[in-house]
Fold this protein.
Amino acid sequence: MLKSILEKLLHKKIALLLLTYYFIIFVWWIVLNFYLHVKDPREPANLLFTTYGFLGLFGVINGLRIAKKWGGWDSKLGRGLIFLCLGLLGQTIGLSIWLYYNLVLKVDVPYPAWSDAGYFSIIPFNVLAMISLGYLAGVKFSFRSAKAKFFALFVGILMVSVAYFLFLKEVKVDFSNPVRTFLDFGYPLGEALVISMAITVYGVTTKTLGGTFKIPMIFTIYYLFFVFLSDYSFLYTAGQGTYYNGSWVDLVYATENLMGAFCFILYEDLEVKEA
Amino acid sequence: MNGDTKTLVKLIISIHKELIGPYAVDQANKVEGLKVSSDFEQIEIMGDNKEVVNKLVKQYQGIFGNTSIQLCKEALRQLLPNLAGEQLPDALR
């Protein structure tokens, strides 16, 4: 499967260009961490690394173009792609506001902040994307079996348990700060919901998911796994007090942005010449 | 070409138009022996009706795999329950 995905992507000049840009960012990340040892988020040296947001922004613009090709809002595929775009856009906006605090106002980002509006929006948009794309993968038919329902329940319980043991058991409800409390519960549970949906779609649609749609759908699931990984990595290291701008967590975010951009490229060519 | 075949072709294309928008008609027009106007008003089948419908189903199956077949079967059960078995293409039996 990975070989098929790479074959499809590396035939596209734009994918090679994005990969080159990511490579430059990766090299700069190595320089930042192992040569310059920059940990202050206000350092301008961080700016080049955080331009990984342009990968996501390109993904959004290209994704909206491809969504339009497939019927835009009027089709299930178009809607699914639009929701994926909106999630990635939310994250790009979150990053921009985060950088504004660090590099322009030169202060640490408060919590909660407007950047959270952007970052959090990826959760509901990815849920909506999975509903549309999951339909195209055949979840509706797969879910007729008790085995599929049990699998979904098992995955859901597992992911909520992970969220609880990693984060929620330390969270206290604070009615004096409802937004913070909402985000404290919302981030880990929301990401658990999205990844549960992705794993479930992957697990139950083996008999229905097929055709030229299969590769981009599988890649979407890989992308959503990276979204989960980046957000959980940030939540964990921020909670431990070990997160800093330009850390390995931001490299995961950069990889996630690249995968988001690749996702839409894979949805571009679904046509079948002639059966 | 009888009315049932035309109805069946329209139904199959409509199902996929909900999935991929107007490209569903483009994909239908790639099927050998089938010509469909964008508003579905003009449908021409040249050759064996059942074979052309079978190819149409397989064209969409090429994009969405078994999901496409299941969606077509479900729609047939609901909207064309009286369609005789011999009129159905092999892929939808």
